[in-house]
What does this fold into?
Amino acid sequence: MGFRQVDLAALFRDTGLLLTLGPSSTYGFVDRVGVAAVSGVGTAVGALRIRLTIETGTLTGLVAGALVTVGTTSYRVREIHAVGDGATTEILCERG
It folds into this structure.
């Protein structure tokens, strides 16, 4: 049995952090993830990115380049990806 949409909303609200984009806000998770920054034949350079995970459609105005605030820290959105069945969205950021 999988999560229902109401379960997902409660999970974010009960265990997530408040994320704000202009007048819009939602709850989500914040973590760091390694990504390939540069790669070539026989070499790869990694970098850490900030990853925000939210329920899809809950942060109005989300576009690449936008500033999302978590607490007192601002992050600039670099990439936005739907995860799995599209119920959640992954946002890769850098410090704003």
